[in-house]
Design goal:
This protein is α/β, with parallel strands linked by helices and about 250 residues long. The chain has 9 helices and 7 strands; from the N terminus they run αββαβαβαβααβαβαα.
Length: about 250
Amino acid sequence: MTSDLWVRRYHPRPDAPVRLVCFPHAGSSAPFYVPVSANAGPGVEVLSLQYPGRQERRNEPLVDDLDTLAAQCTDAVLPWLDRPFALFGHSMGATVAFEVARRLTAKSLEPVHLFVSGRRAPSRNRDEQVHRRDDAGIIAEMKSLSGTDARVFDDEELVRSLLPVVRNDYKAAETYVYTAGEPLHCPITAFTGHDDPKVSVDEADAWREHTTGPTVLHVYDGGHFFLTRHQAAVLAVVSGSLAPTTTG
């Protein structure tokens, strides 16, 4: 595996004392985290994962199994873990980040912090079958979550190219089955929207079950993509949480 296929480093900060590795949500890609990379501050270097089957990797097979995706992401980030690191994921990306954290911890490479956004705790299951809907049903789901620019739906060719990726990622997220195991030991900070139809506040708070370290939950106004509206506030929490690492 070539790590360069997977890892995007939009704003190199080779002297930053900590790296923040970010995992995109279903249907998304690495550039979603460009604003985070740009605004993380000099003490944090942001790496964003590019999953197969999208953008410049569009000719590669999609991965519709979350455990397989997490294993591949784990291998991809290993060359970048020469300093303290934290993980951040939104929606499906939060589950991927969690599974990567588990795999890295098994290799004695535990993150200093896990940040999870817009996703219920792995131990909280829902029977969701969005990936089995027809194309119109998938589009309706995308529109309902307000995470896609409305102008995208006016471009039939673009929508046609996006649908297989979205369906694939929904399948990965919805067929994921949490396997109980040793909890993490790092702190977990969870973020959620008060009106998110995909995550209740209780389901987000349950992330505390997955670590022996401290857990903090931040609830914001908004739905599943509250993150876009509250990006500055979320980034301030992330930067504050990593400050002890960045200042030595």
